[in-house]
Amino acid sequence: MLTVKDTVHDHIEIDGVAADLVDTPALQRLRHVKQLGTVQLVYPSANHTRFEHSLGVYHLANRALDHLGIEGKRADRIEAAAMLHDVGHGPFSHNLESLTHRRTGKYHDDVDELLATGAVGEVLRDHDLDPDRIAEIVAGEGPYAGLVSGELDVDRMDYLVRDAYHTGVPYGTIDTERFVRELTFVERGAGADADGPDGWSGPDRDGPELVLDEGNVQTAESLLLARALMNPVVYTHHVARISKAMLRRAASELLDATATTAAELRRMDDHDFLAAVRDCRATAEFARRYDERDLYKLAVWAEYDDVPDRVHDADRAAETALEREIAAEAGVARDHVILDVPPEPTMRESTARVTVNGEIRRLERQSPLVSALRTAQRNQWRLGVYAPEPATDRVGRAAADVLGLDPDGLVTEVRGAMPTTLDEFE
Q: What is the reported pTM?
């Protein structure tokens, strides 16, 4: 058995297959992949990694399995999946995933080949575990997979409290102990809402469903609220978004200018990737800007309803064409314009199931808070256009024209920190 001192969960005890997986190269690589990508440029202490997060997810999964009374091979599979759930992440976590997916067809939870080969595959087979079964759980498929990859999963519980701790932001605090105590599995259709508005007992869904036990609507709401509050101040902070967009551009240029493949990029860690973009003539300037925090600035920061549908619906090829058109109208180099269109706002946690008066209901049907948070999430959505500081005015005017934005609807200022003293609140 291994015992690890963790900043969030105190002492984590690791045994069985999980203990044998810890020192495999696939797990150790995660020591060099930051959990929050470029957020450290906003919150300097946000240097925690996917490795420590994986240990935390294993710990919470282990606690939940004890509470649920799940043992034997089934528990071993869940614990292995919890430990391995992030091995498919590329450098800077989710940041480059859209790019690598376009070129490889794989997301970070597509880990079949990573688990079937090398040291990880050997460890799993030594413990009589099928790597394909573990990969299915990581992808959210199969019985009991919802504990690792679902609406109430231990992955989400760990990263919220861990990200809040390392950024110093209090909004992500949730009661993980209560969560794991109140989780339960029920057979689909058992106690389901008679109206069946959510298709909970539909024929295409097999195996038991992970739900929160009776009287825990507020527990589920706390997860939603924590995520909603962390989103604008941490995950989508404008500086983090600008730096992420610059690294995505650098990664795309790297693949086009060198023999590096998207599959190879996907297996790099943060240090490998930064070294590669520093050494490539086409991307060296992006690397310098990142290293020196000499980032592009906001040229446009537009709200959801002020952006035309054609821009919301644009694929990557259309976005690239719009970037070129903006650059041409502004009279700047194409590399000096980055268009950043976030995906449609979603709230996966709202589909979590809770038990109310003996019925299994979707949280979004039971909680009036869900509608308010959806509205807030839509109001927080921003389209960004970024450019070097001397060109932001020209690029902003050109972008408003090319994208069909109402100049009066643009967000022209992002409020920064303000020094203050406690006596101002007396």
A: 0.91
